[in-house]
Automatic annotation (TrEMBL):
This is Exocyst complex component Sec8. PANTHER family: EXOCYST COMPLEX COMPONENT 4 (PTHR14146). GO terms for biological process: chemical synaptic transmission; Golgi to plasma membrane transport; protein targeting to membrane; protein transport; vesicle docking involved in exocytosis; vesicle tethering involved in exocytosis. Keywords: Exocytosis, Protein transport, Transport. Residues 274-435 form the Exocyst complex component Sec8 middle helical bundle domain. One of its GO terms (cellular component) is exocyst. Residues 51-139 form the Exocyst complex component Sec8 N-terminal domain. Belongs to the SEC8 family. Component of the exocyst complex involved in the docking of exocytic vesicles with fusion sites on the plasma membrane. Pfam families: Sec8_C (PF20652), Sec8_N (PF04048).
Amino acid sequence: MPPPVKPPRGKYGKDEAGCGFLVNVIKSLGFSETNEERQKEKQKIEKEFKLSDQRLNDLVSNHDHELSQVIPLFTQVTTEIAASRERIHAVKENLSACKRLLQCRREELKKMWTDAVQHKHVLSMLEQINDLRKVPQIVVNYTSKRQYLHASKTLNDALTLINGPLQEVEGLNDLRSDLIVRRQLLYQRLHEELVQQLYYNSANEVMLAFQRSNLNRLNTNFTRGMGTRRSTDRIEATSRVRQALKEMSQGVNLLQSEIIEDVDLIDPELSMIYFIAVILECFGMLGKVSEALEKIRIGIQTELLEVVHNTTHHMIEQNLPSNEQYPLLTLLDIIFKQFKAIAKTHALVLKNFLAIVQKYQVVGSQPYDLTHFWSQAQSVLQLLLTDYLDIQNASADDDIQNSYIEPIRNMNSYFLRRKVSSIKKPLFKFDKSANLIHKNCSLTDTADPIQKEHRRNASDVSNDNLNFILNASTSKSAGSSFKGSQTNDQLRQKLLICSPDQGVITKVYLPLMTYIQEIEAFMKCKPGQPCSLHDFIDNYIKETFLSKGHNSNLQVCIDTLSKNQEVWRAIVSAEEMKELNLTRPVLKSTARVERCLMETKHLIQDLPCFSEELLKTVCCLLKDYREICQAAYRGIVQPDTEDKRIYSVAWLKDEDISRFLKTLPNWTDLKSSSHRLRQGKKLQRHNFEASEEESPLQVQQRNIREAEMLTSNLGEGGISQQEILTDISVLKELAILQESMEWFSMQISGFANELRCPLVNGLSAVPDCGAYVAVKDGTIKVLTNLALEFDELANVCLLVLHLEVRVQCFHYLRTNPQNGRVDSFINSKEDVLEPDRQVQILTKRLAEMDEAFSATLHARKTRYIFEGLAHLAARILIQASNYLENIDQVTVQRMCRNALSLQQTLSNITGSREVALDQAKQFYELLCMEPDIIITTIVEQGSQFTEMQYLNALQLSCKARGITDSNTLANYQQRLSDILGAKPSAGVVV
């Protein structure tokens, strides 16, 4: 049966049994007004009491068995408590009796205990002295087995004993001195072992991984003799090391943890962790924690320099595979991986150092951190880059380059028609040479390692480590390849894997930025606070490579172009045309600037973080080159003085004429074909169809519009010999300038379009230049505007050539009664079967210009220049009739011969029959007809000429036939007006 449960106790509410119920009864009786109500309440309470009494009786009867069990149990417990009290009383009496017996022998026992303690202490001291004599040999044995934990423990215990309880023993003074010396030697040995683990083993693991990935074999110098070991031994050794590391972390007895003697049996990574933990534990035992920390901190840069030297030496001696063109990339990759491995080992060392400091409660020890390590690593990388980037000789080379800079002259002076005196200058200067060639170096021996002597300033080495490097120890452990004597000569001589070159920065920049990104992540640099190596690279690129290298070369190029006359007259060779994928020659100067532009493009790809600065420099230099090109254009079209007027250039300066020419369909069609050519659509040589929207009739109407515009702007005045470009070579130069400027504009536009896309440079999250380096829109807009300016200059050159051909037609065909050209051109008495002398000169000039343009301009541009010229020539020939006083058969034949000669020449040039000159022949044939026949022809065939031309023809026909009556002339004019006004023109108006 379960034990009885105690009923709950607590306060009762107003509606519950107990006091609350009694209060309710009293209230109900107090509020009752009659005895009947009180009687009812009494009966109700008595009824409830009977029910409660009945429930209580039921509960007692139900729990009668439990009560009968509780009463005997209570009696039994009371009996046992009484018996326990009696037994305790007996024990107290016995203890009192023992105490009285012990007090009787107290003095005798005390004397015997004192004698035993004295004898035991004497024996212990003798045993300690005997053990101390064996300590030196024990330490030697432990050290030879590399059981440094046992050796340190033994030495520490011995020195604690000899400086503590045995301090007053004078016979142990020599032994004490010997143990102190051995402790210092053991500390040095431990430090060498730690350096071996920190630098040598970490670097060798990276070198082994590199050899495996490139050669698929192990180098014999780095292979450990594991083949002869049994796998069971390796497994057992590894498990023992893991157990030892666990016990060391838990503070178990360290003497039981040092159990590995053969390090070749242990896994390399586990071996490093184990021995570092052991060595640092030894430092704590020997009390050398602070000293060891400071020595490691000071020696970081020296050891890293030794790592770099040995890695370079090993790569040269073993002839390891690398990038043949830039082996420095491979070297930097290996060195940075070695630095990361060394940093990982340093992190392990620092973690153990912190545990040792807390365990041994070292006071005043300030351990370095990985930030300090990466600071020293950056200094080493800066020294390495200083050697390969040849920063020492940059200023000397810049002085030599500046010695050749000459004053800038006016570009227009080179295009003046006068002899330019040539001044011979020495090609080379050696008075400021800064390069010193070693006497023993052979220029033909490329297989030997390259040795170079550098004149390094004290600032090349960090100030805190300079004295340490100069005063470094001259001897180290013979078993480590990192330990060797360093003299001042060895510090100045650096082993290089390739020749120093400032241009190497373009190949190593992106890998360096990746390394810098990782370094800044390790150092937790804040945004806007780059590491020192980042600042070094940025300063070198800005102050040396760009300002004294690339940008200086661009400036020298522009200065050379502004001073050298021959550069602007020379064109590229056939080989260069093939290399540049050109069909027409361009100026050497333009090709040279384009090469500089492409160099900048490659530099932007190699140095994406400096794209904005490079582009700003390029934009400034392109602006200078644009001014030079404009000066060259002015020198071609205005070679002598500012007062001389070239009519085609003057025409083009008229905004209305220029705008009109650019709105004509032949110009827009030429530009659209050039645009298709830019997009890579190849055009055949003779496959230049006009726009699909332009019909043959529209082509003729367009040419007529151009001819009318030009003749109307020319007015009645003629064009003198001084107002045209008579020299074909000048026109050829202008054509070459046009082709050069258009091609250069295409190159700039393509360059700007490529810059609109983000530059993927391989970086993942560099603080100052992310994975996608986008050039600012403002800079791209400047480049685009420059391209448009060069294209506009090309357009101006082409329009000048277009107008110059037409101006020369005016010059040779247009007559002017005021200068006597009517007699020389129309009334010439030369052979009728031959064209006039002026026409012969013009046809010869046109043939020469066609030959010059065909060799220098694209066929589509040549077609544009000569297209529509027949309409202008026909219009000029027809307008020549305005200056005729009389007309005869000879004059008509001569004019027809002139038109035929021009038609043949232009047909040979354009490759199509120029029907416009047929209209000129038909006009002069019309002059031989009777006036009535002229009117009848208009009615039958339709009008082919303008009303003014028909009126002029009627007047000349009437004069030739002696018709002078004004009424008759008025009648003819009225009939002509009625016909032309009633019928639309059916022919081609010229």
